[in-house]
Amino acid sequence: MHRYLRILLFLMGVGSFVLLLVLFLLPTTWTVVRAREIPAPAAQIYPHLDDLRAWKAWSPWQESAYPGLVFHYAGPARGPGAELSWSSEATGDGVLRIEASAPPRELAFSMAFQQGRIRAHDSIRLEPLGGGRTRVVWTDRGSLGRTLLGRLSLGLVESSMGRDLERGLAGLASASTGMPAPAVAPTAPR
Prior knowledge:
It contains four helices and seven strands, in the order H-E-H-E-E-E-E-E-E-H-H. The chain is of the alpha+beta class. The chain has a single domain (about 30-175), classed as 2-Layer Sandwich (Alpha-D-Glucose-1,6-Bisphosphate, Chain A, domain 4). A seven-stranded antiparallel sheet has the order 1-7-6-5-4-3-2, covered by helices on one side.
């Protein structure tokens, strides 16, 4: 009986080790890309991007959606160095900072959450299509750090960010054109 118990404990130990090894080999980074065609020229869309206060009209992350959330602005009014920070019980803390601005083609910004443990780097690229239309491509890349929980939650983060980017692009379309965003699915990135 003791021999079978030792074999069982040994197999459980080896199984646990293999499971932990597999979990630690899971990825910790994500890349989510969403795109949408907006019936407006890039020069009409871009002012909604490089002014963080203008994000209130279109961003998927709104103060009104989270009780107690208040945004604080710092740095220049627009462009590189402009910063938006927040802290609340519902969302935790975070900072969004514009890193680079190339009007009217591209905006790059970084985000940090949970005292910098989770980081993301985003870019929003505007591609003129002709006829006054623009393809807007939002790319979000990030890392959940080296934690086991982060590795297990990566799929949820990717799914949630995908929905956020789609809502943001729909809101940007609406804010840029002054019309409600059409209820069509965003176009796939190229």
